[in-house]
Amino acid sequence: MSEWRMVGMTSAIFLLTVSVLVIRYGHIRYLYEDNPDGDIAAPPRGSHN
């Protein structure tokens, strides 16, 4: 594997890692408007979605 290909692969892995961390941080820091408590609501009984 050439040096530039290794740099490219390392950069791609690093960008994916940073993207995942940013998304995870966003989900923790900025909760959804319809669920301010952060609890996962169970679907209503009889619902077959």
List the helices and strands and how they pair.
Layout: H1 3-29
Sheet/helix structural class: mainly alpha
DSSP strand count: 0
Shape verdict:
elongated
**How large is the share of residues in beta strands?**
under 5%
Quick recap of the structure?
The protein is mostly helical and 49 residues long. Helix content is 55%, strand content 0%. The model has no long low-confidence stretch (mean pLDDT 81).
How is this structure best described in words?
It is a single chain. The chain is mainly α and 49 residues long. The chain contains one helix and no strands. It has one helix spanning 3-29. It is elongated. The protein starts with a helix and ends in a 20-residue tail after the last helix. The relative contact order is 0.08. The model has no long low-confidence stretch (mean pLDDT 81).
